[in-house]
Amino acid sequence: MNDALRILHRAAPVMPVAHFQNLDHAQACAELFAEAKVPTVEVTLRHPQAWQMVKIFKDIMPFAKIGVGTVVNRRQMLRAADEADFVISPGFSAELSILARKTLTPYIPGIATASELMAAMNEEHRVFKCFPAAAIGGVALIKALSAPFPDVTFCPTGGISPSNYQEYLALESVACVGGSWIVPSEDALNKDLAGFLAMLKDLYAS
Fold first, then answer.
1. Which residue of 47, 156, 180, 197 is surrounded by the most CB atoms within 10 Å?
2. What is the pLDDT of residues 100-124, one digit of tens each?
3. Which residue is catalytic, options 31, 129, 167, 201?
4. Which UniProt keywords apply (predicted)?
């Protein structure tokens, strides 16, 4: 089992795809996730202080694997190799794949088509983020791709919710899903911290 696949199995059933409003929000979520023993978190690079947020999670959750998401260029990949446990991209880049191998960084590229899947497989990848999953066909698309590519594993992300994530997890080729719904907003934390803690503990109980 390669490192990327280990990351997905560790993250199951849901990898939090985390975009925070500010550093205080990131700190509060890291403390919540630590108490709930969330095993894996993807911190997206969608905020100017995202790298500081990655450090917050690394400091507060030393037992977890903390990854960097939305990595789209060489500079981000090299920094992620130093500061995170794994890297996720919304698409596939051969350059990023080469850098990941050179830096021994677990890398999960994104794919949306069979052609992208084939290009990534040519770079020895077998573990993928399927993005944006719901918008490009959802469960039906993953079923269709899994037939000609039976040895690949997916983490569908995008449009995944409490109402449909089990449909994805029922597929043999899906190791986990990526979800933002399990990352509470600041308002939600203030209103129902206990409720979110209970939900997370239940989700990862198995």
1. 156
2. 999 999 999 999 999 999 999 999 9
3. 129
4. Carbohydrate metabolism, Lyase
